[in-house]
């Protein structure tokens, strides 16, 4: 994750409107990082396992904005220290 990715998500973020969830994307494919509004924190805390927030994001499609990044690295998913080694 690069600082410029976070900056672009923050610029587009609108927690009260149509961009309460901002997702980095590369060529239309959603990736990481994801910025979610505070209202979603209780739902995030209730997640278990390796499901991530996909179900939550899918249920809120009308409030999701994909923010295009010129970096295929946003499509990588790191969940464990071993993921960083490979």
Describe the structure.
- There is one protein chain.
- With 86 residues, this protein is α+β, with helices and mostly antiparallel strands.
- It has one domain: Alpha-Beta Complex (Spore Coat Polysaccharide Biosynthesis Protein SpsA, Chain A), CATH 3.90.550.
- It is 30% helix and 22% strand.
- The protein is built from 4 helices and 3 strands, in the order αββααβα.
- The protein has helices at residues 3-12, 41-45, 54-59, 81-85; strands at residues 21-26, 29-36, 64-68.
- The chain has a 3-stranded mixed sheet, with helices on one face.
- The longest helix has 10 residues, at 3-12.
- It starts with a helix and ends with a helix.
For this entry, give a set of tags.
single chain, 86 residues, alpha+beta, 30% helix, three-stranded mixed β-sheet, Spore Coat Polysaccharide Biosynthesis Protein SpsA, Chain A
In brief, what are we looking at here?
This protein has helices at 3-12, 41-45, 54-59, 81-85; strands spanning 21-26, 29-36, 64-68.
Q: What characterizes the major β-sheet?
A: 3 strands, mixed
Give the CATH H-level superfamily: Spore Coat Polysaccharide Biosynthesis Protein SpsA, Chain A
Order of helices and strands: HEEHHEH
Low-pLDDT regions: none
Rounded mean pLDDT score: 89
Give the % helix: 25-40%
Percentage of residues in strands: 15-25%
Structural classification = alpha+beta
* CATH-derived topology: Spore Coat Polysaccharide Biosynthesis Protein SpsA, Chain A
Instruction: Return Rg in Å.
Output: 13 Å
* Subunit arrangement of the protein: single chain
What form results from the Cα inertia axes? Answer: globular
Q: Please work out how many helical segments DSSP would assign.
A: 4
**CATH arch. level architecture:** Alpha-Beta Complex
End-to-end distance: 16 Å
């Amino acid at each position: 994750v690069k600082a410029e990715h976070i900056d672009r998500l923050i610029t587009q973020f609108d927690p009260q409107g149509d961009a309460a969830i901002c997702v980095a994307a590369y060529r239309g494919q959603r990736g990481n990082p994801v910025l979610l509004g505070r209202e979603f924190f209780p739902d995030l805390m209730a997640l278990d396992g390796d499901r991530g927030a996909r179900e939550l994001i899918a249920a809120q499609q009308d409030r999701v904005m994909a923010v295009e990044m010129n970096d295929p690295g946003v499509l990588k998913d790191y969940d464990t220290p071993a993921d960083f080694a490979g």
